[in-house]
Write a structure and sequence with these properties.
Chain A: Its EC number is 2.7.7.87. The structure holds two protein chains of two kinds. By secondary structure, chain A is an alpha/beta fold. Helix content of chain A is 28%, strand content 25%. Chain A has two domains: 2-197, DHBP synthase, CATH 3.90.870; 202-355, Rossmann fold. Chain A has an eight-stranded mixed sheet with strand order 13-14-20-19-15-18-17-16. In chain A, strands 4, 5, 6, 7, 8, 11 and 12 form a seven-stranded mixed sheet that branches. By secondary structure, chain B is an alpha/beta fold. Chain B is built from 13 helices and ten strands. Chain B has helices at residues 49-73, 80-88, 92-103, 118-134, 144-150, 201-211, 219-228, 252-264, 274-283, 292-295, 302-328, 343-355, 374-385; strands spanning 8-13, 18-25, 28-36, 108-114, 138-143, 169-174, 179-186, 189-195, 332-336, 359-361. In chain B, α6 runs parallel beside α8, α6 runs antiparallel to α11 (302-328) and α11 (302-328) runs parallel beside α12. The longest helix of chain B has 27 residues, at 302-328. Classes of the chains: A alpha/beta, B alpha/beta.
């Protein structure tokens, strides 16, 4: 068992070592956008057996796989138009989707019905790894069956008996992972979408999410921004119009977006109308958080000189956006509008609708 | 104490909706001029953005002249004929000439660099740069929060009150835009111990007032209503963040709990018609809003609700301060910002420090609780003593989320 620590300067070294082990049918413990995962070549029967032995996983219980993108996904599973539409909303993201398999991976990974769980994670290192590997890789959490998931390598190793440790070929230690729940598992094989396991990001349909806590609201915001930003340069500024009653969590939503952009100190801008932040994300330069709570007259809006921010590479969030009514047309010309509508379901639960 | 020759500072603050200019000398305020964009009875609650930038631009010259004119009335060295000239003609040339003379008596220019509204800060900074260049004065940049921290030590022109510094202090800045606990170790040396993660305390009070249909701005109205029921707690709304051991604040959970209580009891004021509520709040007696028509005959315990919300906010402030006293073992408090104009909050703070055998300072004059330039000038004087001037005035830029350091 070898442990390498993932640093900012050694990702390619980590990738190469991991690839080599996977090719030999070895077992790698690897960080992800959720918890630490157990990676083996999904097409290698022996490697998969080793994985099942490691996990004490009852035979016949399916294990999902990472694919690098939609091309690989479509090779592995069967999708129709409706399913593709839903997939495009969810992936990449913290979701595992269950679809009918083309049976190209080890059958031990599939369910009795011949379905397979697939994930496209929002984690560049895994994306690269699977891409270079050219085949699906198993995506199961690095814990023994029935035990809870791990966010650090230390707690994982503590749990493992020596006999299990021997089965591990390589551990990639990325330190403590943020406490994101394991992925939400969604079954798309039936007519009606079914949620098998609830992770952090919950949704009613592909555009409506549910949150039960400020932390969840932040994660939903983060996920949505991540999806919208994508991985190529933005051609237009992003304009978020966030509507909702007082106390529903609009600022919390913006704080979640801020976390994705490396801005840890977002606070309510009500008093000063807007705050401007520098983002560390490569495709977003300036992040502007506007609260139109005190703006009573659209005429006043002009004087905020917000137009100067409506340039590509910037993201501007408007809380209480309906007051922006008159300038909405101007905004539409200049940027890409994303509507976020937040509602109270009850005191503890919020519905978050996204349209763009 | 070492004798320090005090320099005269012309200070400018345009961080929010007050266009403020003052002339200070050490801790003394020689003149203070302010143009407020909201009615004078409130010094916190939020900005009207249309007014903010435009009004700052329109008023800044006038406020600068006003501060200099007030200075002149107590400065015999200035020629009296320029004063009469200004009164008679009020033409631009006369003002210009007068300002030129008055500026001879100024040593430095201080200006607020942040935190605040970007477009508003820009106006003050531009003016400060212009004056510094035109009259060849050194420029001092001041953090607005630093100003609030020093506000309890600002003196009138006669040098009163004579408060001595006894560092370290635990300092709170509580306003419509800020809620921070800061360890004030020595002049210009600060450590932020805790701050709000979402809304400022004053903002929470303002939003509660709005939910009750009391109009904007609501803090002073809430204070009055609460007083009428002796500041008692009737509904025990949650005290946010008290379970957490950190000194961070969060008021969004309280806001939600309050909103939900109003919703459940059918006493929520229609939030969508915010424009309406503003004008109602201003024109009619805000204590008896017209909302009974809208919510039927449900009796709403306005005073009890206002008082209970206020006490939830205040108790959070007090308990966190108590935690800070225990953690730092510093029992001397300095509290500034618009919310400390509230007399009940002052009483609670006084009771707290008595329990820890400490003492407490508030801003000695009411204008010092709100935004003003006098506190910027006084904070600036300590920077001047340490020769902390802006090295390249042309490059001075506003920092809307400037932090204390």
């Amino acid at each position: 068992m070898k442990i390498i620590s993932l640093q900012s300067e050694n990702p390619s070294e980590v990738l190469n070592e991991s690839l080599e082990i996977l090719q030999k049918g070895g077992l790698v413990i690897f960080p992800s956008d959720t918890v630490y995962g157990l990676l083996v070549d999904a097409t290698n029967e022996l490697a998969v057996k080793k994985l099942i032995q490691f996990k004490n996983r009852p035979w016949g219980k399916p294990i999902s796989v990472f694919v690098s993108g939609f091309d690989m996904l479509n090779k592995q599973v069967i999708t129709d138009h409706r399913q593709t539409q839903i997939l495009e909303e969810l992936l990449p993201g913290p979701f595992t989707v269950i679809l009918e398999s083309h049976h190209l991976v080890s059958l031990l990974l599939e369910s009795e019905k011949g379905t397979l769980g697939v994930r496209i994670p929002l984690y560049p290192l895994i994306e690269k790894l699977v891409n270079q590997f050219g085949k699906p890789i198993t995506a199961t959490s690095a814990n023994l069956s029935g035990r809870s998931s791990h966010y650090s390598v230390q707690t994982l190793l503590k749990e493992l008996p020596e006999s299990k440790k021997k089965l591990i070929d390589l551990i990639v230690d990325a330190g403590k992972l943020p406490r994101n729940k394991p992925s939400t598992i969604v079954d798309l094989t039936a007519d009606k979408l079914k949620i098998i396991r609830q992770g952090d990001v919950l949704f009613l349909d592909k555009k409506t999410y549910f949150s039960h806590s400020p932390e969840q609201t932040k994660k939903i915001a983060r996920f949505i921004l991540q999806k919208i930003v994508g991985n190529k340069k933005l051609e237009k500024p992003l304009i978020f119009i966030i509507k909702g009653e007082l106390g529903v969590g609009k600022t919390i939503f913006v704080k979640g977006m801020g976390e994705f952009l490396g801005i840890p100190d977002i606070i309510s801008p009500t008093f000063v109308v807007y705050y401007e932040y520098a983002s560390i994300h490569r495709f977003i330069d300036t992040f502007v958080h506007v609260d139109l709570y005190n703006v009573q007259d659209p005429e006043e809006f002009k004087h905020l000189r917000l137009e100067k921010y409506l340039e590509k590479g910037n993201a501007v969030c408007f809380e209480w956006g309906e007051k922006a009514g008159e300038i909405m047309n101007k905004l539409k010309d200049k940027g890409r509008i994303i509507y976020v509508e937040m509602k109270y379901v009850n005191e503890k639960e919020r519905e978050i609708k996204i349209r763009y | 104490m070492l004798f320090v020759i005090q320099m005269k500072i012309l200070a400018i603050d345009t961080s929010a909706d007050e266009t403020a200019v003052a002339v200070t000398e050490g801790r003394k305020v020689l003149s203070n001029a302010l143009f407020s964009q909201i009615s004078t009875h409130t010094k916190w609650g939020g900005i009207y953005p249309a007014l903010a930038k435009r009004a700052h631009e329109e008023r800044i010259d006038w406020v600068v002249s006003e501060a200099l004119r007030k200075l002149e009335t107590r400065n015999s060295k200035l020629e009296t004929n320029s004063k009469s000239q200004i009164k008679k003609k009020k033409n631009n040339l006369a003002i210009e000439q007068f300002n030129n003379e008055a500026m001879n008596h100024i040593d430095y220019i201080a200006v607020t660099q942040g935190p605040g509204l970007a477009v508003a800060l820009e106006v003050g900074i531009r003016k400060a740069k212009e004056l510094a260049q035109k009259y060849n004065k050194k420029l001092i940049s001041v953090n607005h929060l630093e100003g609030h921290i020093y506000s309890s030590f600002v003196q009138n022109s006669k040098g009163n009150p004579k408060r001595e510094y006894k560092f370290p202090y635990l300092t709170l800045v509580i306003s419509g835009g800020h809620t921070e606990i800061v360890l004030w170790k020595d002049h210009l040396k600060y450590e932020i111990l805790g701050e709000t993660l979402d809304d400022a305390a004053g903002e929470a009070l303002d939003k509660a007032a709005k939910m009750l249909g009391l109009g904007y701005p609501g803090g002073p109205v809430i204070e009055r209503l609460a007083k009428e029921v002796e500041n008692k707690d009737f509904y025990q709304f949650p005290r946010p963040m008290l379970k957490s051991k950190t000194l961070e604040f969060s008021f969004s959970g309280l806001k939600t709990a309050f909103y939900y209580y109003l919703l459940k009891t059918d006493s929520v004021f229609p939030l969508r018609s915010s424009t309406e509520s503003v004008s109602e709040g201003r024109q009619t007696d805000p204590v008896e809003p017209e909302r009974h028509k809208k919510t039927g005959s449900v009796e709403i315990h306005l005073r009890e609700l206002a008082s209970s919300f206020q006490i939830a906010v205040f108790e959070t402030l007090i308990k966190k301060t108590e935690m800070a006293i225990i953690q730092t073992k510093v029992n001397r408090l300095v509290v500034g910002g618009g919310v400390i104009a509230n007399l009940h909050l002052r009483k609670l703070f006084k009771e707290l420090v008595v329990g820890y055998k400490g003492d407490i300072y508030f801003p000695p004059y009411k204008y010092l609780t709100g935004d003003n330039a006098a506190m910027i000038g006084v904070a600036g004087s300590y920077k001047a003593q340490e020769s902390k001037f802006v090295t390249d005035p042309l490059k001075l830029d506003r920092i809307p989320r400037l932090r204390l350091s």
